[in-house]
Amino acid sequence: MQSIQEKADQIVKELNQFDDWLDKYQYIIDKGKELPTAGLEIKIDENLISGCQSKVWLTSEYRDGRVYFKGESDALITRGLVSMVIQVYSGCTPDEILSFEPKFIEQAGLSQHLSPTRNNGLLSMIKQIKLYALAWKIRNNPSTLKK
């Protein structure tokens, strides 16, 4: 299984193979098309992420010490960003998620080329992923709160 850093490095490598930003945008859109449809059960208000220009729903589940994410969006480019974030963070332990700094966003040039509202949305997705990881960590190890 790839580490969270290896998965982030893969995203950077894939995006940086393109010189033109239109090609990168098309790649992000294609990533969104590859994202499995999460279904209507995910599209509820409690899974809606605030701070995103488009509607983004994100949910998580905890299995065998790892957190797995499902996501959905109503916009193609945002759906691609959801897909990339899920690719990086899904299948990692709560501690890995909480300690990982998302430098891949800048390394891939996303923060410089996305609109400010899309960039804020991307950061909101990552913030929500970290909140899910923290919740799973506390839920599965309540003694964490006593520190």
Oligomer: single chain
Overall form: globular
Helix tally?
Answer: 7
> Helicity range of the residues?
40-55%
Taking the sheet with the most strands, its summary is: 2 strands, antiparallel
Structural class of the secondary elements?
mainly alpha
In total, the number of strands is 2
Description:
The protein is mostly helical. The chain has a single domain, classed as Sufe protein. Chain: A (Alpha-Beta Complex), CATH 3.90.1010.10. The protein is built from 7 helices and 2 strands. The model has no long low-confidence stretch (mean pLDDT about 90).
Key traits:
single chain; 147 residues; mainly alpha; Sufe protein. Chain: A; 7 helices; 11% strand; globular
What's a quick, concise take on this entry?
This protein has 147 residues and is mainly α. The protein has one domain: Alpha-Beta Complex (Sufe protein. Chain: A).
How is the secondary structure organized here?
Blueprint: H1 4-16, H2 21-34, E1 56-63, E2 66-73, H3 76-89, H4 94-99, H5 104-107, H6 110-113, H7 116-140
Helix pairs in contact: 1-3, 2-3, 3-7
